[in-house]
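Field notebook, page 255. I keep forgetting to write these up properly, so this time I am using the form the group agreed on. The chain and the ligand, coenzyme A, are recorded exactly as supplied. Prediction of the bound pose follows.
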Amino acid sequence: MVSLEIRDVHGDEIDDVVRIHNQVVSASDREYTIYSSPRVAMYLRAIVAWPILSPQHRIIGAWNGQELVAYAHYRDLGCSYHLNHIAVADRWQGSGIGNRLFQHWEAEARSRNYTKLSLDVSINNTRAREWYIRRGFESDYSTYVFSREHDAIEASNDGNCTSGLRIQGWEAAEAWQRAFGFSTFGIHEDDRRWSVGRLWTKYFQLDAVPSEEAWHVLKVIDSKRDVLIRMRAGTIILSNDDSLRLTVTRMMRSE
Ligand SMILES: CC(C)(COP(=O)(O)OP(=O)(O)OC[C@H]1O[C@@H](n2cnc3c(N)ncnc32)[C@H](O)[C@@H]1OP(=O)(O)O)[C@@H](O)C(=O)NCCC(=O)NCCS
């Protein structure tokens, strides 16, 4: 077993985190995450540079001498301690390094009195899924990420059809988008609300199917983005026109 140092990642080491992530996580699994933004390192650097502003996040790394060989990013989800990402550089996989980072995460959850550990894994990532199952995790539910076309909506803003809608958090979302290449804002329509993510220049990502008016707003904001919808399997039946991009499984373990 190599002698490893495991500690918090510093701001000037974040480029190595992103390099490892991009090396070992498939492009299709990265595409619908913040790692599709070329500015994701700015975001991760902000997290580690000002922990007081993001106390729920922690990024740790494993070093062999000067070389970062693996990292794990976890955070508080309120009801569980959640593993956002774990990645071991290709040539170091299978030598127990992932397990060491995993044990750190477990130990920290224990010391903070969490009763649940959680993580999300792509259904295509059989190796990681089996790795988690061997560590006592069980599938809780699946989420579909699918795209839906809406040809009838034009990118014009000439009528009153959006008058009942309000956008919440727009200024902050614009600042995030410029700084980090992704952002979230809300669309409110009477008592309905959609959380809308923007991933780099390619996607809107919503947590429910938008109404006609909400579609219209999205087209006005950026007619070129594809609209992705991220919903729990079982709460939606996909139609033939929907294109399923990814299925993600939420896995849990009770402590
Ligand atoms: C999934 C991943 C994090 C696992 O990390 P890893 O370092 O390859 O895994 P480990 O070496 O700790 O464990 C692999 C197996 O090798 C075994 N192993 C091999 N050599 C070992 C050694 N010298 N010491 C300890 N265990 C060793 C372990 O027993 C383990 O078997 P087990 O699962 O039955 O316990 C890693 O493969 C990875 O980065 N994958 C790509 C990114 C990814 O998919 N991330 C998860 C997204 S949700």
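OBSERVATIONS:
- The chain is about 25% helix and 35% strand.
- The chain has two domains: 5-114, 145-251.
FOLLOW-UP: compare against the apo run.
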